[in-house]
Amino acid sequence: MSLAFDRSSLEEKLATAASDVLETMFFTSVEDADSEAERLYINSQTNRIGASLDFHGACRGRLALSLEREAAQGLAMNFFGSCGPDGTEEDCRNVVAELTNMVCGAMLSHLDRKSIFCLDSPKELPMGEEAVGEVIRDLRLDNGLLRLAFSLEELDEAAGH
Amino acid sequence: MAFDVMIVDDSPAMRRFIKRVIEVSGFTVGRYLEAGNGQEALDQLDQEWVDVVLTDINMPVMDGEALVEAMRQREHLALIPVIVISTDATEARIDRLRSLGAQGYVTKPFAPERLRIEIETVLGVTPEGALVGAGVEGGDDEFSF
Asked: What are phi and psi of B25, to 5 degrees?
């Protein structure tokens, strides 16, 4: 299967998918964070938490994301509301995993509504490892910066078409 | 009237979120049963009756499609309504799940109202106990989280 998307189109779909998820289910505002200063800031951060997820089916690839621990705590508190323990380490890991799952599912639905994809379980990124992929998009949330990284196996063929 | 609900999802965060949405929806729930995959769900459903099953699709061991199929093949589970809650919004997947016997399908991300409406439709009653379609007001009420 060939998904003929150029890089900017994939970046836009990635941002749209993530914004939909974050605004609808995590009740957080989302803005673009594409300045060089913000990229450098993310790359200099060490206290970040992240997850990655492989998908397959009509095409194969990976979505990874990472964000500052404080931002993850904020998302966990929004996601669970006030009726549970807020912002614990386990909450943060679970919420980042679920965020990865939802963003990936939304992204694939934006790419191709006719095909069936299977998503593996999200895996936590090792401490200090940043989200990497062919397409990178940074977003500013209420409590910090989120990095999204997406790769499609056919991306090199599709780029520029 | 209290309903017994089973939530099947390998994400503990998502199970907790769904419980919270049901609670703020105003449904009176007797028991929540939880399972991390389809096989765990079947094992519990062989012992316990529930009024509705809410299930994810992508799970280890036994996925949501296999769970729906297995339930429809078991006489004592065939009539339990199933609502699928998934990130997968592709038409092919939704059509397949409906053909297997899922009565409802909610794609993530979803607003809490969306899940409430789906549960109302499947159970046939509102959180207040009124029959769905009986001209009851309040179907579009906002939630307060």
From this structure: -70, -25
